[in-house]
């Protein structure tokens, strides 16, 4: 049950980030370089950027994308902003 809730909550949090990033792009004409520019706090551990909550990672720039861990070990959910779609990959 905890796993189902984690996946559901991560997905919902990711959707909030996507909306904020898309809104930023509409206003500024480009994607933000980091999530702090759209109001999401970034966590640092031992001086390294660990991203926002829920294990979500964001890659800014022209090929902006958003990642969060998938349901299986070494799997990932990825949102590609330029294609406006989710993909799932398993390594």
Name the descriptors.
91 residues, alpha+beta, four-stranded antiparallel β-sheet, two-stranded antiparallel ribbon, 26% strand, globular
Walkthrough of the structure:
With 91 residues, the chain is of the alpha+beta class. It has one domain (2-90). Helices cover 30% and strands 26% of the residues. It has one helix spanning 2-28, and strands at 44-45, 48-49, 57-59, 65-69, 75-80, 85-90. The strands form 2 sheets. A 4-stranded antiparallel sheet has the order 3-4-5-6, with helices on one face. The protein is globular, with a radius of gyration of 13 Å. The relative contact order is 0.17. Mean pLDDT is 80; it is low at 1-5.
Write down the Rg.
13 Å
Q: Determine the fraction of residues in helical runs and give it as a percent range.
A: 25-40%
Task: Give the integer mean of the pLDDT values.
Answer: 80
Number of domains: 1
Largest sheet: 4 strands, antiparallel
Helix and strand composition category: alpha+beta
Number of helices: 1
Q: Using the alpha-carbon principal axes, give the shape.
A: globular
Q: Can you count the beta strands?
A: 6
Poorly predicted runs: 1-5
H/E series: HEEEEEE
Beta-strand fraction estimate: 25-35%
Distance between the termini: 24 Å
Strand sequence of the main sheet, in spatial order?
3-4-5-6
